[in-house]
Amino acid sequence: MFRSTALNWKGPGTSRRRLCRAFLIVGLVVVAQSAAALPPLPGSHAHGVGIAGVRSEALGVPALTTNTSTLDVGQALNAAVNTSTITGGSGNASNLTFQWAGLPTNCTTENASNYTCFPTATGTFSLSASVTDFSDGQSGTATAVSITVNTDPTVTSITSSAPSVSVNQTVTFTVVAGGGTAPLTYVFKGLPAGCAGNTSIVACKPTVAQEYNVSVTVLDAVGFASNAVYAVVQVTPASTPVSSGTLTTTDWGVIVAILVVGFAITGLLLVRARQREKVEYLASAAPTRVTARQSPPPPPDDARPPPPPGM
Q1: CATH architecture assigned to 154-236
Q2: Which of 32, 190, 210, 266 is the most exposed place for a label (fewest CB within 10 A)?
Q3: 65-150 and 154-236 share one fold
């Protein structure tokens, strides 16, 4: 049924030429497929050529996406290239390589579309990523993104306006802080009853007498919390109110009445005293008179008793 035929290398020239062309085509296909699987040599060409000799397009790389544009030292920075939206090249994401540039301090490049690092120094950095399709040598660069790294927030001190106050007296807490990503929020713990606030200065009137250990931390705009600092204030029971020294109209009326009565009594006493002194002076200056003792006049005749009998 089957008939084997041997290649006749000595046959007509037409058959030999056809056979050579067939082997040449197969060899070119194998070489092209092998070359497509290898990364291109650096700087070998600006445009790739596919298996069928079709020129490929340059890569269109979308803008980077980052978790933040501002962070503090030690916080995580994440940046990513969305490979599904890259245009041009072979269209195969597994053929892409990545090179990151403009990284903050302590961050080194990685061959990854999703990149994370933890900066260790402050500054402003222009972060970008270059993408290359190694199957055809096409490349593109994402638009740079500005990243700012700030110092961590810190609290230097917290002080109270007085170490001890009475209930319902005003006490003021003052916090000195710096660093971080503005704005800063001040988080107090242990404030006296009747006190509340989240700014650097809190003024209030405590309502309960006891000792308070007040602490404060600072939280910045990117969620980094500072160290805690403490202050102690003693709140004592309320004392008896003392007049502020301001007199009302009624107070002045009472004072004037008291003064008038006092002056009147004083005047009367002075007049009485002067009169007494005058009388005593006159009494001491008058001459002493001595008068002879005189017999009383005789009674009238009709009042005399009748003479005794025999007279």
Answers
A1: Sandwich (2.60)
A2: 266
A3: yes
